[in-house]
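Hey all, sorry for the wall of text incoming. These are the two entities for the joint prediction.
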Amino acid sequence: MPSTHDILVTGAAGFLGSHLCDRLLERGHRVMGLDNLSSGTRDNLAHLQSHPRFRFVEQNVTAPLALQVDRIYNLACPASPPHYQQDPVGTTLTSVLGTWRMLELARHCGARLLQASTSEIYGDPAQHPQREDYHGDVNTIGPRACYDEGKRCAETLCFDYLRQHGVAVRVARIFNTYGPRMLPDDGRVVSNFIVQALHGADITLYGDGGQTRCFCFVDDTVEGLLRLMESDSTGPVNLGNPHEITMHVLAAEVLALTGSSAQLVYRPLPQDDPRRRCPDIGLARRLLDWAPQVPLAQGLRRTIDDFARRLASPRTPDEAALPLASALLRVQPAGGQAVSW
Amino acid sequence: MPSTHDILVTGAAGFLGSHLCDRLLERGHRVMGLDNLSSGTRDNLAHLQSHPRFRFVEQNVTAPLALQVDRIYNLACPASPPHYQQDPVGTTLTSVLGTWRMLELARHCGARLLQASTSEIYGDPAQHPQREDYHGDVNTIGPRACYDEGKRCAETLCFDYLRQHGVAVRVARIFNTYGPRMLPDDGRVVSNFIVQALHGADITLYGDGGQTRCFCFVDDTVEGLLRLMESDSTGPVNLGNPHEITMHVLAAEVLALTGSSAQLVYRPLPQDDPRRRCPDIGLARRLLDWAPQVPLAQGLRRTIDDFARRLASPRTPDEAALPLASALLRVQPAGGQAVSW
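and here's what came out:
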């Protein structure tokens, strides 16, 4: 029997965060979800509103927080380009200040912290597939830099907290992940294609559609995060699906699975858009005995079913009454909103 | 006649900052120097203690500051590896939070901000010489990352303040600079060699001594900063001396100029130490009509004379009574220490 923990998940109302909360609760842990609901939604957590071991804190990750936990999964940050480019300065500060706040909390609690880093730290990579020792190719002053450089700087903070303060850190570099609960308007290619196909609209390809990506189903990504957190390795470790496909192939899969006869249309490639990105997951295989298990067609089928259900039902107001943490106990000397279970 | 400005210089008590203050005062501006004296010294500004147009604020650049100025030169950050590695987390926060604070101040004042970025954002470069469109090769989790990634992230914030808030930014990527007032113990090669030669001690070379650097005399660097600030270009612009020399050649020059007969000794190269770094200054030549004017032998002679004078005289306590800014006027709505002339 594995022991159970008190766990803080930041970004808990997001796509990935909400699946992570589900899995942690299934395994018997107590979970405190934190989210400012800027790109996450209450809907993603509505099914947990009566869960006895789940609590929710609506707060920005950059604000002080007083809480006693054993594990922190730091996922808070808008992650799709249309979201993270709405307030670029805010995005950078969310990554850097948010990670700093959570590292301070981890240091205070003696907690272990897993940082959700990203394949974006490789930028538009010159090395394929990308190994963890590749240093990346990021334009510091481009429109994606707010996310890329914020996440790079957050990795730096993690390893300096390890060296300088002995905080147990785990850094996962998460590649493209897809699955149920992605936002229909988050601007990522899988959700774009599915929404367009289900609406019978044209499927938009950028560039010539020959650029490649690798897509990992969310259950696989979450399993990787859980294994990394409980492993002895700090990382950074790539978590992604090494099966590389072109945007043309993805579009064809989505059309076939939805039975849509939508047409393909082409648009110019946005600035600094990576032409190709694919993880080398040798390290995750060796250290975590981890590799993706869900084939693309199966993952797409589950994602399409979820989108079809959500698009078919009239949109309900996002007002799930989540079980709030009580503001009782001030633990962190530096102050901040004090919350307890 | 050029118009004069009210100018804030952060890192004013540092090597580069103090020379910048001198030059700005010579040109008729009012100068507010800010420094927390972590690696800067009062001695560097002691000659300004009676200057009618100079004021000093002892404060961390990351703390709020209320002040009305037209120009901000943001130089505050420890810049030599032994200094910036003493408190790596503090170094990253100084760059990121400090630049954010100063950009907010610039936004509030309608001031123009020049960010002192660095050749370190190129990491251990694969391209020689480095042009501004080279994206660099930085290890996000290495011992130099606190400085390199902090400075990269600061560049990102500058360009997002330009795009998002219309702040007039100027970004200079400063390469190795040397000259009078370098700290004898700052661990940089020019000061190390000079101190060792003047003491008749062995000259320490790292690796085989064949790695190259380019050294720019401080007067040239300051002239580049002044020109960039008053130009119409945002940058980033490299400011450095493209004349590339090996550590062996530098050691020989210093030995010749000091008349020392010290021996060379070899030590292992530190982790992530760049093997070679040299600016392409084509952009600075075109946009700013700028190129270094001071030959190495002449710059070294002036630097050696300064070191010889400082090492010969007994070290005086660092207690120059600088003319303090008055804490009178609260200008910035977000609060912070309010200071006026």
